Amino acid sequence: MRLSRSLASVTVAVCLVLSLPYDATPHARVHARTAVAPEPFGATCRSRITGSRVTAYCHNPYVPVDHVSLHIECDRWWDLDSDGAAVAAGPAQTVRLTGRCWKEVRSVWVSHRQRPQDRKERPAR
Questions:
Q1: Which run of H or of E encompasses 3?
Q2: Could you report the per-residue pLDDT of 19-45, keeping only the tens digit for each?
Q3: What is the rounded CA–CA span in Å between residue 3 and residue 119?
Q4: Under 8 Å between Cβ of 111 and 73
């Protein structure tokens, strides 16, 4: 009889704890920070291969300056691949990048970089 009374009191205690409303349970009060959407960035580039010559046009429709570089991979093993110098494409500006291989071109791509000094801090909200 004694065991059933202690079991009954434990059962009642568990039921009372489980029936507490959610708001009554303790929890940490941490406020989530709202993330600021990044400012749009990046020029749109088109490239054209004509024989061994490469021409790329990059247009930057955004305010931050985009530093674009032309990269050319040549098809022949003895032909040197090239990585062009970064050219600043300002807001609403189109820049032309050129390069070449001695023989055939295997692949071409343009890299984009936003330099830290060109980033403008947005005010906190």
A1: helix 2-18
A2: 656 555 555 666 667 778 888 899 999
A3: 72
A4: no
